[in-house]
Amino acid sequence: MSLPRPTEPADKAAHRLSVSLSDDQYARVAELARRNRVSIAWVVREAVERMLDDKQPQLRQGKRRP
């Protein structure tokens, strides 16, 4: 199943961010992108959008930074 392409206007301002993934997470994201012929960045943006659209996102307790 292919993921739908984003339909954002080209002139829309974007914010850059940096995330750290484990080797396993990166491999899984990269494989998903490859299978669907999209960029890794697109997969990450789609995941963020889906989580934000979820009415009750289930967040796991993460490590707090000092």
From TrEMBL:
Residues 15-53 form the Ribbon-helix-helix protein CopG domain. It comes from the Bacteria. One of its GO terms (biological process) is regulation of DNA-templated transcription. This is CopG family transcriptional regulator. It comes from Borborobacter arsenicus.
